[in-house]
Specification:
It is built from nine helices and 16 strands. The chain is of the alpha/beta class. It folds into two domains: 258 residues, Zn peptidases (Aminopeptidase), CATH 3.40.630.10; 116 residues, Alpha-Beta Plaits. Strands 1-2-4-3-5-16-6-15 form an eight-stranded mixed sheet, sandwiched between helices. Strands 10-12-8-13 form a four-stranded antiparallel sheet, covered by helices on one side. Strands 7-14 form a two-stranded antiparallel ribbon. The longest helix is centred in the C-terminal third of the chain and has 21 residues. Bound molecules: zinc ion (2 copies). One zinc ion binds next to loops.
């Protein structure tokens, strides 16, 4: 498999993107590709559409796991190039096509050159974008067969110099989760709101108080109110002008540097909503979605990434602050003794992730492959 053919493979994945938990054709394409350089074991349907390819070493030793993601995002592609997405409203705007190409290129090298000790697992994980994929893989009964001592993953990062690496020990990216607060009062005639119980005031008070929670948390955290509705609209989007509302909902994204701070933030947010509901005689319910755990790199994991970059003469910056965005690799990393996530610059001029005109830069495929191989060389030993 030449560099041109791995880049063609990336472009084919780009052309046929699939949303989270629907990545069956993508998984099949990956399987077909690995048939050219067979591993020692293949585990399919991990947490849904996930696949793990295992390359065994000659003698016992540590297990290393490298993760990439199978899913694309619900964004309409604006690009007009030959490999543009053929699926309306879906495209690889997070560069997971490129991450898959990198791990596939690693597979090809490992097939020619098995690890000396232990084993290397290449995990193609489903549903990263919803935050549900890593958890589904971990909860799969097969997971115990691929439990690793070391886990690593990368994400490309536009707006940073092409091929430059960014990593840090400790907190690497934030925990985040969607919070839905539902308030219930009583509808009444708009001429007699006094006969009902409108949640309007409680709703506006909650919207003002939620963003103040970070003042009580002594590391970076953020509450972003993303949507709020009062009463109900008809199918044409018109308000019922004759009715004083009896229901309201507020949606907010909670974001914290660590999982511990997320526990505190959730507690504060529930307390605020409950107090406001009680003050206005309303009942309240909570729902949580899009749950991402924080990713916390271990010191040893960080050192493996930094040492690999040094060996390869790649610029590697040690970050001083964790990224604000979330990624579900943190959940997988928690199941390993050591490991790290790092980012790989996708170019200063690249459109941002999830932009309609974004496309993964193919020149990163060999850079990412060589970093992973160097990390494996340090842990498992390869020629
Ligand atoms: Zn994404
Ligand atoms: Zn992504």
């Amino acid at each position: 498999m030449t560099i041109a053919s791995i880049s063609n493979f990336r472009k084919t994945l780009h052309q046929f993107p699939e949303l989270s938990n629907q990545e069956t054709a993508t998984a099949q394409r990956v399987l077909d590709q690995f048939a050219h350089f067979p591993p020692d074991e293949i585990h399919q349907n991990l947490g849904g559409t996930g696949i793990a390819f295992i390359y065994n070493g000659k003698i016992p030793g540590p297990t290393s796991l490298l993760r990439c993601e199978l899913d694309a995002v619900p964004v309409q592609e604006a690009n007009t190039f030959g490999h543009r997405s053929v699926h309306d409203g879906i495209s690889h705007k997070c560069g997971h096509d490129g991450h898959m190409a990198i791990i596939t290129a690693v597979g090809k090298k490992l097939a020619q050159n098995r690890p000396h000790k232990g084993r290397v697992i290449l995990l193609f994980q489903p549903a990263e974008e919803t935050g549900a994929g890593a958890l589904a893989v971990i909860e799969d009964k097969i997971f115990k067969l691929i439990q690793a001592d070391f886990a690593f993953a990368l994400h490309n990062i536009p707006g940073h110099p092409l091929g430059e690496v960014f990593v840090k020990p400790g907190s690497f990216n934030c925990a985040s989760r969607g919070m839905s607060i539902k308030l219930y009062g009583k509808t009444s005639h708009a001429a007699h709101p006094d006969n009902g119980l409108s949640p309007a005031l409680a709703m506006s008070k909650i919207i003002q108080l939620l963003p103040k929670i970070p003042e009580q948390i002594d590391e970076f955290s953020l509450v972003t109110v993303v949507a709020a509705t009062l009463g109900t609209l008809d199918t044409a989007g018109n308000a019922a002008f004759g009715t004083s509302p009896g229901e309201a909902s507020i949606m907010a994204t909670l974001r914290t540097t660590t999982n511990t701070s997320m526990d505190s933030m959730m507690k504060y947010a529930c307390e605020i909503a409950t107090q406001c509901a009680t003050e206005f005689g309303l009942s309240v319910k909570f729902e949580w979605s899009d749950i991402f755990h924080a990713c916390s790199n271990t010191q040893t994991g960080y050192e493996h990434v930094a040492a690999a970059c040094q060996e390869l003469n790649l610029a590697c910056t040690t970050l001083t602050e964790a990224y604000r965005w979330s990624e579900d690799f943190g959940k997988l990393l928690d199941t390993s003794k050591e490991g790290a996530m790092f980012t790989l610059g996708a170019g200063l001029d690249s459109p941002q992730l999830h932009n309609p005109d974004y496309d993964f830069p193919d020149s990163l495929i060999t850079v990412g492959r060589d970093i992973f191989l160097q990390i494996i060389r340090g842990i498992n030993g390869i020629k």
